[in-house]
Fold GTPase HflX.
Amino acid sequence: MQLTAKPSLPNALLISISTPQFKGDEATESLAELARLVTTLGFKVVGTQSQKQSSTQKVNVLGSGKLAEIAHLTGNKGMVEDEQEDGLLDEDSLTEMSSEIPSNDLDFVCADVVVFDCDLTPSQLRNVENQLGVEVFDRTGIIIEIFSRHARTKTAKLQVEIARLNYVAPRLRETSTGDKERQMGKGAGETTLELNRRKVRDQLAELKRELISVQDVMMDRRTQRSELFSVALIGYTNAGKSSMMRAITGSDVEGENKLFATLDTTVRALYPITQPRILVSDTVGFIKKLPHDLVASFHSTLAEAHDASLLLYVVDASDPSFRSQLEVVHKVLAEVGVEGSKKLLVLNKSDQLSTEQQQSLMDEFPDAMMTSTRNPDDISKLHKYIIGIAQEDMIEEEIVIPYTAKGIVGEIRSSMSVVKEEYEYSHIKLTVRSSAIDLERLKKRMLNL
């Protein structure tokens, strides 16, 4: 099932179900985030509706009265009867309902798509679609579609397609043509639905085999880089990680003011270039209520973070909800088993805060670093911090290199930091800083000269 934003039908109505476990500010923030997700897909959010329920697991996820209200906002295209004629939807309730729509003309904001800020079972989704007569999607469907559009590398595409097929499989429906063929004896014992489900199972099996093969190649590449000090930028989506990546590596990493503008993990060298080089990876952003299948895909998407020497937790300090977003990051990282030996909380987008707000946050998070990617001094400060942490694990040692050892000095300069150099009659004496592994490798080579 693919979600396609039609230029002529871009209007989306968002539905929030408030339960005893999910209510208040949490529900409000989640609905606002859903609006950003839907906007990322190219739809125009024309209004929101909410209803209190004891659970989202009921056969009918909405009450009949609320369903009738929403039917008016979708043009009464489904099977819901016009209950206004029966006195079930009076003028006062209609006015209250339309107050959530940013327009005085109800026809102008007629919704073409309805999106629920929760997961719907296949039967719930079918029931609501039949009642409203428009496309209905849940939060998981929206997130998976965004991931599908933003995946660029083969690994990410495979991971997202597996998640999409797992989502689609239980929502496949029998076609009327398939039913008729079965009834007339024209089929081979399987309905169209059964054939489609078998096809999806075969696709999933093939995709999983291909993913294992691709991941083996990625593992080899990470092993080759494992001896270098590495930094992983992690955090909530739209926290400014890509802008920070661009600032500290001088790269052209994509960055937009949209959720999941970056999905694939990108690795670049810290700039200005250091010796030895320091690698920086920009990982996929996190989000609340991330679909289970996509959490599983994060295992390899976040593989760079698994091996990182330093984790930078980037948050949008100007977002009042960044604390709860940070909790989501910690939770997902725990689920995928990412643990870094060193961590730094980076309070990003400080240029959007007042001096008083900045001071308050630093009092609350004394070990954090306040930054703005638009401030060169802040980027320089972060650059120096990263180098300082990297050098903590380095060893300083004196190396004597005879003039007859060709090429050794060049190799040392390209992979180690030369602190001091002295030229004697028969040799060069270099004081270098490097990792224990590189120093041991150099010593073994010197013995074989």
Observations:
- The radius of gyration is 28 Å.
- The chain has a mean pLDDT of 81.
- Residues 269 and 279 are 4 Å apart (CA to CA).
- The longest helix spans residues 192-225.
